[in-house]
Design a protein that fits this description.
240 residues, OB fold (Dihydrolipoamide Acetyltransferase, E2P), single chain, five-stranded mixed beta barrel, 2 domains, two-stranded antiparallel ribbon, alpha+beta, 8 strands
């Protein structure tokens, strides 16, 4: 009967190094698989909700938690005096700001509208008077929930004019206006011609490279094991 005898004398320090690194690499690969599923479901949720018919504000207010990424149609008058500027936004590689403006609706309710991107030279309202729309406007946008601050994102500093995230409750408290605190609206472009502020086009643009990241981490993990045993074999510590 065929039998295989394996003699293995592991190096203490190499083993102490290899085992935790191997499991760390496995965890990183597993995390990327989780992120892959999360991102895939997020893109599907966005596309499914975006393609549904636009809602009215009254419909959304009844159960806003069910309407993330849904389109909504609103009308009212912009309160340009209380607009805020979101820092650190880019458009096609150019740095700039997002203009977030309260919209006072016909029923006297107020909601925040993220109107879109402007370059730094148009940050001051006096340099872009053509963007300060007067009178009633009819808009279609996407429902968004208050942004969560990331680990490396600074806190908003309203007194200094530094806004990094859109938090309706914080914004309305600062400008001393009563408004919708549970969500805000990202304005959608009404046509193909770009005008300032440049609103979103509704096309989801989320990189989804987690599969290749997972493959990289898993490859490194099993590559490490291959090197570990190859080293032992080359030193005569592994024989079979």
């Amino acid at each position: 009967m065929f039998s295989l005898k394996v003699r293995f004398k592991p190096s203490f320090w190499l083993t102490v190094f290899t085992i935790p690194v191997f499991f760390i690499l496995l965890c990183l690969g597993t995390w990327q698989v989780y992120r892959l599923n999360w991102k895939t479901n997020l893109i599907k949720e966005f596309n499914d909700n975006f393609n549904d018919a636009p809602l009215t504000l009254n419909e959304v207010e009844k159960n806003y938690l069910n309407f993330k990424y849904r389109r909504i149609k609103v009308n009212g008058t912009f309160d340009h005096e209380n607009e805020i500027h979101l820092i650190g936004k880019t458009y096609e590689g150019s740095a700039g700001f997002h203009i977030v403006t309260p919209l006072i609706m016909n029923n006297e309710k107020t909601v925040l509208i993220n109107r879109g991107w402007v370059p730094k030279k148009y940050l001051n309202k006096n340099s872009r008077k053509f963007t300060l729309l007067e009178g009633k406007v009819n808009l279609i946008g996407i429902i968004k929930f208050p942004q969560e601050k990331g680990m490396f994102v600074p806190d908003n500093e309203p007194e200094n004019g530094f806004w990094f995230t859109i938090n309706p409750e914080e914004i309305f408290t600062y400008i001393k206006i009563k408004g919708e605190k549970n969500f805000y609206i990202d304005l959608l472009r009404s046509d193909t011609k770009l005008i300032l502020p440049i609103a979103i086009d509704g096309k989801i643009d989320l990189p989804n490279n987690h599969l290749q990241y997972a493959f990289t981490w898993f490859s490194l993990a099993f590559g490490l094991i291959f090197i570990y045993f190859s080293w032992h074999k080359s030193k005569g510590l592994l024989k079979y």
